[in-house]
Amino acid sequence: MNTLLSIKDLTVAVDEKVLVNQVSFDVPQGKIVAIAGGSGSGKTTIGLSVLRLLPSALQIRQGSIVFEGQDLLKLSSEKMRDCRGARVGMVFQEPLSTFDPLFTIGQQIDEVLAAHTKLSKQERYKKVLETLSEVELPDPLRAYKSFPHQLSGGMRQRAMVAQAIVCNPSLIIADEPTSSLDVTLQVKIMELFIRLKKKNISILLIAHDLGMIAHLADEVVILRQGEIVEKGPVERVYKQPEHGYTKELIEAFQ
Ligand SMILES: Nc1ncnc2c1ncn2[C@@H]1O[C@H](COP(=O)(O)OP(=O)(O)OP(=O)(O)O)[C@@H](O)[C@H]1O
Ligand SMILES: [Mg+2]
Fold first, then answer.
1. Across 116-164, where does the E strand assignment appear?
2. Which of 20, 41, 176 should be mutated for ligand 1, with most atoms under 8 A from CB?
3. Can you list the domains of the chain with their CATH numbers?
Protein backbone atom coordinates (compact mmCIF):
# COMPACT_ATOMS: atom_id res chain seq x y z
CA MET A 1 0.00 0.00 0.00
CA ASN A 2 1.38 3.41 -0.97
CA THR A 3 1.89 5.97 1.75
CA LEU A 4 0.74 9.39 0.59
CA LEU A 5 1.50 11.35 3.75
CA SER A 6 3.96 10.39 6.44
CA ILE A 7 4.27 12.47 9.58
CA LYS A 8 7.29 11.67 11.76
CA ASP A 9 8.12 13.00 15.22
CA LEU A 10 6.14 16.18 14.68
CA THR A 11 6.64 18.51 17.62
CA VAL A 12 4.93 21.91 17.78
CA ALA A 13 5.39 24.40 20.58
CA VAL A 14 4.52 27.91 21.60
CA ASP A 15 7.33 29.34 23.71
CA GLU A 16 8.07 26.66 26.31
CA LYS A 17 4.69 24.94 25.98
CA VAL A 18 4.66 21.82 23.81
CA LEU A 19 1.30 21.48 22.03
CA VAL A 20 2.09 18.47 19.84
CA ASN A 21 4.74 16.04 21.03
CA GLN A 22 6.58 13.64 18.70
CA VAL A 23 3.53 12.65 16.73
CA SER A 24 4.06 10.05 13.98
CA PHE A 25 1.50 8.44 11.69
CA ASP A 26 0.91 7.69 8.00
CA VAL A 27 -1.98 8.30 5.64
CA PRO A 28 -2.02 5.63 2.92
CA GLN A 29 -3.27 6.47 -0.57
CA GLY A 30 -7.03 6.16 -0.93
CA LYS A 31 -7.63 5.74 2.81
CA ILE A 32 -9.34 7.83 5.44
CA VAL A 33 -7.31 8.36 8.59
CA ALA A 34 -9.01 10.11 11.50
CA ILE A 35 -7.51 12.06 14.38
CA ALA A 36 -9.72 11.87 17.46
CA GLY A 37 -9.24 13.35 20.89
CA GLY A 38 -10.62 15.89 23.31
CA SER A 39 -10.81 19.63 22.80
CA GLY A 40 -7.34 21.20 22.93
CA SER A 41 -5.53 17.91 22.30
CA GLY A 42 -3.77 19.34 19.23
CA LYS A 43 -5.86 17.99 16.33
CA THR A 44 -6.18 21.28 14.45
CA THR A 45 -2.52 22.07 15.16
CA ILE A 46 -1.50 18.88 13.35
CA GLY A 47 -3.73 19.68 10.35
CA LEU A 48 -2.38 23.22 10.10
CA SER A 49 1.20 21.95 10.39
CA VAL A 50 0.74 19.80 7.28
CA LEU A 51 -0.46 22.87 5.38
CA ARG A 52 2.17 25.10 6.99
CA LEU A 53 -0.56 27.47 8.05
CA LEU A 54 0.12 27.60 11.79
CA PRO A 55 -0.36 30.94 13.54
CA SER A 56 3.02 32.66 13.80
CA ALA A 57 3.36 32.05 17.56
CA LEU A 58 3.34 28.29 16.98
CA GLN A 59 6.62 26.74 15.88
CA ILE A 60 7.42 23.36 14.45
CA ARG A 61 10.38 22.29 16.58
CA GLN A 62 11.04 18.88 15.18
CA GLY A 63 9.91 16.31 12.65
CA SER A 64 9.16 15.76 9.00
CA ILE A 65 5.94 15.77 6.96
CA VAL A 66 6.57 13.82 3.77
CA PHE A 67 3.80 14.19 1.18
CA GLU A 68 4.08 12.66 -2.31
CA GLY A 69 7.75 12.01 -1.57
CA GLN A 70 8.69 15.55 -0.51
CA ASP A 71 9.19 16.93 2.98
CA LEU A 72 6.70 19.79 3.11
CA LEU A 73 8.66 21.41 5.93
CA LYS A 74 11.57 21.89 3.51
CA LEU A 75 9.62 23.31 0.56
CA SER A 76 9.96 26.96 -0.44
CA SER A 77 6.93 29.12 0.37
CA GLU A 78 6.18 29.29 -3.34
CA LYS A 79 6.20 25.50 -3.82
CA MET A 80 4.09 25.18 -0.69
CA ARG A 81 1.51 27.58 -2.13
CA ASP A 82 1.34 25.47 -5.30
CA CYS A 83 0.76 22.38 -3.21
CA ARG A 84 -1.95 23.94 -1.04
CA GLY A 85 -5.28 23.97 -2.80
CA ALA A 86 -4.01 21.92 -5.73
CA ARG A 87 -2.53 18.73 -4.25
CA VAL A 88 -3.94 19.18 -0.73
CA GLY A 89 -7.48 20.48 -0.26
CA MET A 90 -8.54 21.91 3.06
CA VAL A 91 -11.77 22.14 4.97
CA PHE A 92 -11.34 24.30 8.04
CA GLN A 93 -13.14 24.20 11.34
CA GLU A 94 -14.53 27.71 10.89
CA PRO A 95 -16.23 28.14 7.51
CA LEU A 96 -16.79 31.88 7.87
CA SER A 97 -13.09 32.65 8.14
CA THR A 98 -12.32 30.69 4.96
CA PHE A 99 -14.25 32.92 2.61
CA ASP A 100 -13.68 36.59 1.93
CA PRO A 101 -16.95 38.46 2.65
CA LEU A 102 -16.39 40.75 -0.34
CA PHE A 103 -16.45 38.13 -3.10
CA THR A 104 -19.05 35.60 -4.16
CA ILE A 105 -18.57 31.92 -3.42
CA GLY A 106 -18.27 31.26 -7.17
CA GLN A 107 -15.56 33.88 -7.63
CA GLN A 108 -13.57 32.43 -4.75
CA ILE A 109 -13.72 28.83 -5.94
CA ASP A 110 -12.96 30.03 -9.49
CA GLU A 111 -9.87 31.77 -8.15
CA VAL A 112 -8.48 28.47 -6.82
CA LEU A 113 -8.98 26.84 -10.22
CA ALA A 114 -7.46 29.82 -12.03
CA ALA A 115 -4.38 29.72 -9.79
CA HIS A 116 -3.75 26.00 -10.16
CA THR A 117 -5.03 24.95 -13.60
CA LYS A 118 -4.87 26.09 -17.20
CA LEU A 119 -8.63 25.82 -17.75
CA SER A 120 -10.39 28.57 -19.72
CA LYS A 121 -12.87 30.86 -18.00
CA GLN A 122 -15.78 28.92 -19.43
CA GLU A 123 -14.34 25.54 -18.44
CA ARG A 124 -13.75 26.86 -14.94
CA TYR A 125 -17.33 28.12 -14.68
CA LYS A 126 -18.63 24.69 -15.65
CA LYS A 127 -16.28 22.92 -13.23
CA VAL A 128 -17.23 25.19 -10.30
CA LEU A 129 -20.95 24.59 -10.89
CA GLU A 130 -20.38 20.83 -11.19
CA THR A 131 -18.43 20.81 -7.94
CA LEU A 132 -21.08 22.86 -6.11
CA SER A 133 -23.64 20.30 -7.19
CA GLU A 134 -21.33 17.42 -6.20
CA VAL A 135 -21.40 18.65 -2.59
CA GLU A 136 -25.21 18.56 -2.67
CA LEU A 137 -25.91 22.27 -2.76
CA PRO A 138 -29.51 22.29 -3.98
CA ASP A 139 -29.15 25.35 -6.21
CA PRO A 140 -25.53 25.50 -7.44
CA LEU A 141 -26.09 28.64 -9.53
CA ARG A 142 -27.52 30.50 -6.57
CA ALA A 143 -24.63 29.38 -4.38
CA TYR A 144 -22.19 30.50 -7.09
CA LYS A 145 -23.64 34.01 -7.08
CA SER A 146 -24.02 34.31 -3.31
CA PHE A 147 -21.75 36.17 -0.95
CA PRO A 148 -20.65 34.04 2.02
CA HIS A 149 -23.06 35.73 4.48
CA GLN A 150 -25.99 34.97 2.19
CA LEU A 151 -25.62 31.23 2.72
CA SER A 152 -26.56 29.25 5.80
CA GLY A 153 -23.74 27.78 7.91
CA GLY A 154 -24.37 24.35 6.45
CA MET A 155 -24.32 25.67 2.88
CA ARG A 156 -21.06 27.51 3.55
CA GLN A 157 -19.55 24.34 4.92
CA ARG A 158 -20.49 22.48 1.75
CA ALA A 159 -19.12 25.35 -0.36
CA MET A 160 -15.87 24.98 1.56
CA VAL A 161 -15.76 21.27 0.72
CA ALA A 162 -16.36 22.24 -2.94
CA GLN A 163 -13.42 24.63 -2.80
CA ALA A 164 -11.26 21.90 -1.25
CA ILE A 165 -11.99 19.34 -3.97
CA VAL A 166 -12.29 21.52 -7.08
CA CYS A 167 -8.67 20.93 -8.21
CA ASN A 168 -8.87 17.15 -7.68
CA PRO A 169 -6.32 17.02 -4.83
CA SER A 170 -4.76 13.73 -3.72
CA LEU A 171 -5.26 14.60 -0.04
CA ILE A 172 -8.02 16.41 1.78
CA ILE A 173 -7.58 17.66 5.31
CA ALA A 174 -11.02 18.05 6.83
CA ASP A 175 -11.24 19.63 10.29
CA GLU A 176 -14.67 18.94 11.79
CA PRO A 177 -16.23 19.01 8.32
CA THR A 178 -19.76 18.34 9.50
CA SER A 179 -19.85 20.27 12.77
CA SER A 180 -22.43 22.84 11.67
CA LEU A 181 -24.63 20.47 9.68
CA ASP A 182 -27.84 18.71 10.63
CA VAL A 183 -27.87 14.92 10.59
CA THR A 184 -29.22 14.56 7.03
CA LEU A 185 -26.49 16.79 5.65
CA GLN A 186 -23.86 15.09 7.80
CA VAL A 187 -24.80 11.84 6.09
CA LYS A 188 -24.54 13.49 2.66
CA ILE A 189 -21.06 14.84 3.38
CA MET A 190 -20.04 11.39 4.65
CA GLU A 191 -21.34 9.86 1.41
CA LEU A 192 -19.35 12.44 -0.53
CA PHE A 193 -16.18 11.50 1.36
CA ILE A 194 -16.79 7.83 0.57
CA ARG A 195 -17.15 8.76 -3.13
CA LEU A 196 -13.88 10.72 -2.97
CA LYS A 197 -12.15 7.78 -1.35
CA LYS A 198 -13.36 5.55 -4.18
CA LYS A 199 -11.55 7.94 -6.52
CA ASN A 200 -8.35 7.08 -4.57
CA ILE A 201 -8.26 10.40 -2.70
CA SER A 202 -6.93 10.24 0.86
CA ILE A 203 -8.60 12.10 3.68
CA LEU A 204 -7.14 13.22 6.99
CA LEU A 205 -10.30 13.60 9.02
CA ILE A 206 -10.23 15.57 12.24
CA ALA A 207 -13.30 14.90 14.32
CA HIS A 208 -14.85 14.69 17.76
CA ASP A 209 -17.59 12.44 16.52
CA LEU A 210 -16.57 8.83 17.07
CA GLY A 211 -19.70 7.68 15.22
CA MET A 212 -18.63 9.48 12.08
CA ILE A 213 -15.12 8.10 12.46
CA ALA A 214 -16.46 4.55 12.85
CA HIS A 215 -18.52 5.03 9.71
CA LEU A 216 -15.85 6.63 7.54
CA ALA A 217 -12.32 6.02 8.65
CA ASP A 218 -10.00 3.11 7.96
CA GLU A 219 -7.56 4.05 10.68
CA VAL A 220 -7.73 6.22 13.77
CA VAL A 221 -5.13 8.10 15.76
CA ILE A 222 -6.13 8.87 19.36
CA LEU A 223 -4.58 12.04 20.68
CA ARG A 224 -4.42 13.28 24.27
CA GLN A 225 -2.68 16.48 25.30
CA GLY A 226 -0.61 16.54 22.14
CA GLU A 227 0.52 12.92 22.29
CA ILE A 228 -0.65 9.82 20.50
CA VAL A 229 -1.95 7.32 23.03
CA GLU A 230 -3.04 4.73 20.48
CA LYS A 231 -3.41 4.25 16.72
CA GLY A 232 -4.57 1.48 14.43
CA PRO A 233 -7.40 0.17 12.27
CA VAL A 234 -10.73 1.63 13.42
CA GLU A 235 -12.34 -1.76 14.03
CA ARG A 236 -9.51 -2.97 16.24
CA VAL A 237 -9.27 0.27 18.22
CA TYR A 238 -13.05 0.38 18.82
CA LYS A 239 -13.42 -3.30 19.67
CA GLN A 240 -10.23 -3.79 21.64
CA PRO A 241 -8.92 -0.45 22.81
CA GLU A 242 -5.50 -0.91 24.35
CA HIS A 243 -5.34 2.34 26.25
CA GLY A 244 -7.52 3.47 29.13
CA TYR A 245 -8.06 6.89 27.54
CA THR A 246 -9.37 5.30 24.32
CA LYS A 247 -11.81 3.24 26.42
CA GLU A 248 -12.97 6.40 28.15
CA LEU A 249 -13.54 8.17 24.83
CA ILE A 250 -15.51 5.26 23.43
CA GLU A 251 -17.57 4.82 26.58
CA ALA A 252 -18.34 8.55 26.73
CA PHE A 253 -19.58 8.35 23.16
CA GLN A 254 -21.87 5.33 23.64
N1 LIG B 1 -2.15 30.71 18.75
C2 LIG B 1 -2.01 29.95 19.86
N3 LIG B 1 -1.25 30.37 20.88
C4 LIG B 1 -1.09 29.61 21.98
N5 LIG B 1 -1.65 28.40 22.16
C6 LIG B 1 -2.42 27.92 21.18
C7 LIG B 1 -2.64 28.65 19.96
N8 LIG B 1 -3.44 27.93 19.18
C9 LIG B 1 -3.71 26.77 19.85
N10 LIG B 1 -3.10 26.78 21.05
C11 LIG B 1 -3.15 25.70 22.07
O12 LIG B 1 -2.78 24.50 21.44
C13 LIG B 1 -3.50 23.40 21.99
C14 LIG B 1 -4.07 22.57 20.89
O15 LIG B 1 -5.05 23.31 20.21
P16 LIG B 1 -5.83 22.74 18.94
O17 LIG B 1 -6.63 23.86 18.40
O18 LIG B 1 -4.87 22.08 18.04
O19 LIG B 1 -6.76 21.66 19.63
P20 LIG B 1 -7.95 20.78 18.99
O21 LIG B 1 -7.65 19.36 19.35
O22 LIG B 1 -8.11 21.10 17.55
O23 LIG B 1 -9.22 21.26 19.84
P24 LIG B 1 -10.78 21.41 19.39
O25 LIG B 1 -11.34 20.02 19.44
O26 LIG B 1 -11.35 22.28 20.45
O27 LIG B 1 -10.82 22.03 18.04
C28 LIG B 1 -4.51 24.00 22.95
O29 LIG B 1 -4.01 23.83 24.25
C30 LIG B 1 -4.55 25.45 22.57
O31 LIG B 1 -4.83 26.24 23.70
MG1 LIG C 1 -9.63 21.97 16.46
1. none
2. 41
3. 3-87+171-253 (3.40.50.300), 98-168 (no CATH)
Rounded-to-integer distance, Cα 166 and Cα 135, Å: 11
| 92 alpha carbon – ligand 2 mean position (Å) | 9
What one-letter code names the amino acid at 174?
A
Question: In whole angstroms, what is the distance from residue 128 CA to residue 141 CA?
Answer: 10
CB of 127 sitting under 6 A from ligand 1: no
Our CA angle for 139, 144, 148, nearest 5°, is: 105
CA distance 197 to 203: 8
pLDDT in tens, 151-175: 988 888 889 999 999 999 999 999 9
Taking the model in full, what pTM does it have? 0.94
3-state SS assignment for residue 183: helix
